[in-house]
Every structure is written in structure tokens, then in C-alpha cells.
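For practice. Supply one:
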Amino acid sequence: MSRTITIEPVTRIEGHASRITLQLGEDTGLEDARFHLTQFRGFEKSVCEGRPYREMPALTARTCGICPVSHIIASNKACDHLLGAVDIPPTGEKLRRVINLAQIVQSHALSFFHLSSPDLLRVGWDSDPATRNIFGVMRQNPELARDGIRLRQIGQTIIAKTLGGKKIHPTWVVPGGVSEPLSVEKRESMLRLMPEGALLEIAKRTYAFYKTLVPKFKDEATHFGTQPTLFLSLVTRAQGHLEHYDGVLRVKDAQGRILEDQVPPEEYGRLIGEVAVEDFSYMKFPYYKPQGYPQGIYRVGPLARLNNVQACGTPYADVALAEFHMLQDSGPIVSSFHYHYARLVEIIY
């Protein structure tokens, strides 16, 4: 007899999900799996349309309370273009990059240490659900937990006290650059927060520890989220290296072929389409237009970014990137399990 398994609520995720449903056939096993998101319908029309452009960064940042800096920067970059200030002052760009890197550190640290490590350390799979969390990690591996808390503290403090003014939805980034310069006092405060090499040493120590875990999860890495997809990311304009703030678009397929390269972001509409086809959601599903839906489904984020480049641009991250590419005999890394690996490489970067 066929049956449906419902997982509700969904915990320890960076985002909002109401439930997961698994449809099992009588003789066929798993037939369908659905991830049900908490959705807000009509955000563009009911909230954004008709608003002054200067309000848009703050509004779009409400998309997320974990990574609002990315949304703020993306919206402000769009406002830069509206104002004709495509090239903002160099100091403003550098400060935007600093706050964006701080967010990457804190967000990746949250995802790896707080949300994922309870499973990776076997705290959660065979344990009481009450210990299936960061507190269980603290008891089993207190040094790892301290490192995770420290990394996130560094990122959040740079955002809140040094640059952005507050941890969640900072308003410091504005069209044309930033709202105020970095003072000497705040610069010194930021340097005191992370003595020379401290953040890098934590990141390298965590990365080395995680590499010892990877062989233990060979089965999970082989079977978890290994469907072939495209990969979309930014790369630097000149060398095609890892990029988070600026750059151009690159699309690569699951065999490693570059389908699109050096595409200006403002031309994204030529590459990306949206379709509302799934009966369980009124969200639109993006896809790569030349291949249609669902063949043109693509992945983004740290896994896609590392799959799309051969260099990060910093010494230790380049070594880690080379080791990342060796996880598979050839071609891009297709297992979603290795998003963990990719996040740690980006923290090192």
C-alpha cells in the first residue's frame, strides 16, 4: 500500500519550510519528495511596486534574517545603475566587500556548526532529539563548538558594531556606496576583534577536522542530491576566479562544459526564465532558458561557485579548492552533501 510520510516541523535549516512530504509507492519505493516552503505571495506587487527606489534595499533585505547583507548589496547595486553610478567610489566598493565577506563568514558558520554539525558528528542520528543541536555538539566536541561560535561572532560583530550598525537588516550600504566612512576607531576595533591570523587559523582547523569526516560519509555523499544539474555563479571578469560581490555570470553543465561565460548580470533575463508548474506551490521555478524546464534546472551558492572556478585567489583557499575538486574523479562535484565542504573553503577564502 502506498503511503505518505510527513516531516513537520522542519528544524535546523537556514530558511523557512513548513514541512517535507515523501510519497512512497507500494512496490516502487520513493516516488516523490517535496520541500514545502513558507511563502509570501505577491511580494513584488503588493509591497515593492510604486515605492521610492531608496526604500527597496531595506524591503528586499527582509527576504532573510540570516543573509540580509547579500540582498541589501544586490538591491543597492541595482540602484547604482538606476542613478548612473555604475562605478561607485573605490573605497565604497571595498567597504561593501568587507561587510559582504563578514556575512559569508557568519552565515556559513551558522550553517555548518549550528545546523549541520549535530548530524555530521553523529550527535543527532541515534540520539535523543533534545540533544540534536548545537548544545549536543558543545558536550561532544566543545572546541569545535567554540570555534563555530567564535567565527559567527566575528562576522556578526563586524556587521553590527564596525560597519552596518546592527546585525540584522543593516542600513549602512546605500545607493552610490555606503552611508559613512570607516573611522579609525572602528577600524582598530575590527582589527582587535580578530588578531592577525586568528580567523584563518579557526577556519583551517575546522577544514582539517572536516576532511577526516568526509570518508565516513561516503554513502551519503554518493547518494544525497546527486542529480545532474547546471551550475550558475559569478566569476571575476578578467580571470574567471571566485567572486561574490561583482563580476560576470558563468553557467556550467554537469559534465563541466561552460555553456555561458562573461555574461553581464544585467543580461540575466536572456539566460534565466521562470515557470509556475508545480501543483504544490505557487512559487516560480527558475531555469536556464536554452534548455527549458526541468532540464535547465541549475544550482547556485557555494557548491556552484567552486564548481565554476579553478582558483579562488587566496593561497590557502586555492589549496582547499584543489582538494575539493579531487572529491570526484572528473567533472563538477554534483553531490549536494558537499555544500558543507564548499562553505568551509569559502570561509578560508
Q: What stands out?
A: Residues 53-194 form a domain with the Cytochrome-c3 Hydrogenase; chain B fold (CATH 1.10.645.10). The chain has a mean pLDDT of 90. The longest strand covers residues 17-25. Residues 90-120 form the longest helix (31 residues).
